[in-house]
Write a structure and sequence with these properties.
By secondary structure, this protein is an alpha+beta fold. The protein has four helices and seven strands. Helices cover about 30% and strands about 30% of the residues. Keywords: Signal.
Amino acid sequence: MRITLLAAAFLLAACTSEPEASPQAPAPQTTVEQPPGKGPNCANANSSVVGKALGLRLQGQQETVDKTVTTCTYVGSGMPVEVRFTTNATAASFAKGKPEKAKAIEGFHDEAYEATAGGAETAQHTVAARKGKTQIEVMSPAGVEPSKKLISDLFGRI
């Protein structure tokens, strides 16, 4: 009887104790497919639109959404290509994300900048522009002018 009471007490304690808190994993990034014309998304910046504007052969794309930022990454030969849409952008958030050595592009949408990293053969250009509450950033080996053309085209699509 004493063993039965001990076993019952042990089981009761096990059932009423609080479980250990398990660490919560960060929310996974999601891949979302949306039809063109439904806001800033990779359907509006598909690989043929981006490749044509930048003069690059791009094959596929992957869309990653993290809160207010949608990133479109493209597969192709050579350097990586990325288009990033940021919603709810402000002049302050745009300035905060601007690289230290970036040069302002005057008269291009509400505000814009360009920056280049790497050497002559490995140059990676970043062009970003904000129009209202939307920011578009293009990172590619293409030059500034093709990136500006793409950004204007994308603003027209969203």
